[in-house]
Amino acid sequence: MSLFSIILALAIEQARPLSGVRVDHWLALHAHQLEDWFNAGQRRHGLIAWCVGAAAPALFVLVLQEVLAYFAPLMVLVLNVGVLYLTVGFRQYSHYFTDIHLALRAGELDRARALLGEWRGIGADRLSSSEIARLSIEQALLYSHRHVFAPLLFFAFLGPSGALLYRLSLVFFRAWGEQADRVSPAFALFSRQAFRLIDWLPARLTATAFAIVGDFEDAVYCWRTQARLWPDAAAGILLASGAGALGVRLGMPLPSDLDQDNRPILGTGDDADADFMQSTVGLVWRTLVLGLLLIALLWVASWVR
């Protein structure tokens, strides 16, 4: 049923995708409300807020799943598809990438800059076409992992409660852990620690999948030699492996008024352009197909036993 639930949820999401901006808005309001209730500037307050906002809903879904499995087994399918539809956003953000790609193809640089700025929430007025393509590929690799592959992995092993736990952990990591200038560091500490722990294995599995479906040798080389240079360890692994798999150079400094983060070079290939953006689409789809095949094999193996 898990494999069928995934395929059905992805099909529905392709036909009627949710608005990623709208979903993020409501989830951000949820995080800010919990922050207002519990933030007293200490780590234990962040732990309590995270448990109330992420662990408790996931536990509720787990209990609901067990109750439905006992009294109404067919309703488990509805629960699975509903949770996946809300947590797996294959097309929630892909329209940004697609529109930027089309704008670069058409030579509409100003439109591409505006779209990228809206997507990242940071101005992009001074970026060249290569820099726009590079940042778009980085966003696509990270978003495909955090909004597709990782929640699907958690669903495959833990059911709908796992997918929900991952998505909510990501929400609190972004709302608290990445907002050091707004949220007290002690309160945000647990959200960072929890997400890094939860994302440790999925990030490495996604990076491995990128290598398998792309240029394996270069992906592994970039992973081993460049990933540790990126400020965020998990993002560094994903971007280094993806860059090597695609044969493109990512990272690299940007104009100082647009991005202050340390951005070492990732990858050993050519400069990013619209053609590499098309290759990124292929890499993401091949990774998804590989993941579905592995889940199908696990499903068949469970029936054989």
Describe the secondary-structure layout:
Blueprint: H1 2-15, H2 20-38, H3 43-71, H4 73-87, H5 94-105, H6 109-120, H7 129-158, H8 160-177, H9 185-213, H10 216-226, H11 233-246, E1 248-251, E2 265-266, E3 270-271, H12 274-304
Parallel strand pairs: 1-3
Antiparallel strand pairs: 1-2
Helix pairs in contact: 1-4, 2-3, 2-8, 3-4, 3-8, 3-9, 4-8, 5-6, 5-7, 6-7, 7-8, 7-9, 7-11, 7-12, 8-9, 9-10, 9-11, 9-12, 10-11
Give an overview of the whole structure.
It is a single chain. By secondary structure, this protein is mostly helical. The chain has one domain. Helices cover 77% and strands 3% of the residues. It has helices at residues 2-15, 20-38, 43-71, 73-87, 94-105, 109-120, 129-158, 160-177, 185-213, 216-226, 233-246, 274-304, and strands at 248-251, 265-266, 270-271. Strands 2-1-3 form a three-stranded mixed sheet. Helix 5 packs antiparallel against helix 6 (109-120), helix 7 crosses helix 9 (185-213) and helix 10 runs antiparallel to helix 11. The longest helix is centred in the C-terminal third of the chain and has 31 residues, at 274-304.
What general outline do the C-alpha atoms trace? globular
Q: State the helical fraction.
A: over 70%
What's the helix count? 12
Mean of residue pLDDT? 89
Which structural class should the secondary elements be placed in? Answer: mainly alpha
Rg from Cα? 20 Å
Tally of DSSP β-strands: 3
Span of the ends, CA to CA: 16 Å
Helices and strands, in order, run as HHHHHHHHHHHEEEH
Query: Which ranges are low-confidence, i.e. pLDDT below 50, for 5 or more consecutive residues?
Result: none
User: Into which percentage range does the β-strand content fall?
Assistant: under 5%
The tally of domains stands at: 1
Strand order, largest beta sheet: 2-1-3
> Mind describing the biggest β-sheet?
3 strands, mixed
